[in-house]
Amino acid sequence: MIFDGIEIAENIKKSVAQRVQNLKSSGVFPALRCVVSSDDKSTRVYLNSIKKNCLAFGIDYAEVEVNEKNIFEKIRELNSDKKVHGIMLMHPVPSQIEEFKVLSSIDPIKDVEGRTPQNLGMLVMGKAYFAPCTAEAVVEMLKYYHVPLAGKNVTIVGRSTTVGKPLSLLLIAEDATVTICHSKTVDLIKRVREADIAVTAVGKPKMFDEKWFSEGSTVIDVGINVVNGKVVGDVDFDSVSQKVSVSKVPGGVGNVTSAILMRNVVNATELICKT
Ligand code: NAP
């Protein structure tokens, strides 16, 4: 089976668009603000795609330009602005400032990316307002395709704060047995082959071919790599898709991640309206 992120994203989009309409008819306009402190090219590409999604979902979008002098003040203003529901801190931040400190200053109820230390800490307790969108997207994809999680062995390759680590917590909450691997893992192929479900989040184009996976397993490819102007995953899709169920790249987890970000803005809006 091929797991299609576009189909899942479309489904999320329908329900989010309805909820945006409901909010607007009661006079509430969901609003996302992106805090930008550099003119980094890849940040600009990402901002343009968020803006496009916001327009498609009917969410009010604006960028807030900041510098090392006013970044904390601007975030304070966004935190207390009742008309702002989601805040995203764009990476990188000025080198003079610790990103951790800036993230810590964002109100966790507006942290629609689930990146603040407060939300990541609460994730351990199962109480986060938001989890990192990509980690959530992987679980959403597995559930959409009715892949059983309880009691299953899941191997995640990659231990980043935005993907591998939070995903392990979300999967433990679903009663899966989770192994996290990384660049120092010994006998990586054995760990991946043992898995009922393998998640690749490494950032190495086509690193995993069919010999990495066992018959009957499920593979979720989080990797997004550009090779000769073409987007490819960490998985060698052509060979692996002959053997096991696998998600597409492009058209996979990335699409679900973008839709979940929009859903989180709506979730934040509804939460803030209730408080
Ligand atoms: P990251 O912070 O660079 O982490 C990469 C992880 O892979 C690290 O834990 C690293 O181990 C591990 N790794 C690297 N080479 C390895 C190897 N040869 N064998 C085993 N493990 C290895 O990357 P990230 O932010 O998690 O992103 C990972 C990939 O997902 C990238 O392609 C990124 O573009 C993509 N991504 C996609 C989405 C989406 O929405 N689909 C969102 C975010 C990221 P160490 O910790 O030991 O260094």
Structural account:
The longest helix has 22 residues, at 253-274. The chain has ten helices and eleven strands. The strands form three sheets. A six-stranded parallel beta sheet has the order 1-11-8-7-5-6. α6 packs across α7 (164-173) and α6 (133-144) crosses α10 (253-274). The chain is an alpha/beta fold and 275 residues long. β9 and β10 (230-232) form a beta hairpin. It folds into two domains: 27-107, Rossmann fold (3-Layer(aba) Sandwich); 133-253, NAD(P)-binding Rossmann-like Domain (Rossmann fold, 3-Layer(aba) Sandwich), CATH 3.40.50.720. Bound molecules: NADP nicotinamide-adenine-dinucleotide phosphate (NAP).
Short account of what is shown:
With 275 residues, this protein is α/β, with parallel strands linked by helices.
Helices and strands in order:
Layout: E1 2-3, H1 5-25, E2 31-36, H2 41-57, E3 60-65, H3 71-80, E4 86-89, H4 99-104, H5 117-124, H6 133-144, E5 153-157, H7 164-173, E6 177-181, H8 188-193, E7 197-200, E8 218-221, E9 225-227, E10 230-232, H9 237-240, E11 245-247, H10 253-274
Parallel strand pairs: 1-11, 2-3, 2-4, 5-6, 5-7, 7-8, 8-11
Antiparallel strand pairs: 9-10
Helix pairs in contact: 1-10, 6-7, 6-10
Bound molecules: NADP nicotinamide-adenine-dinucleotide phosphate.
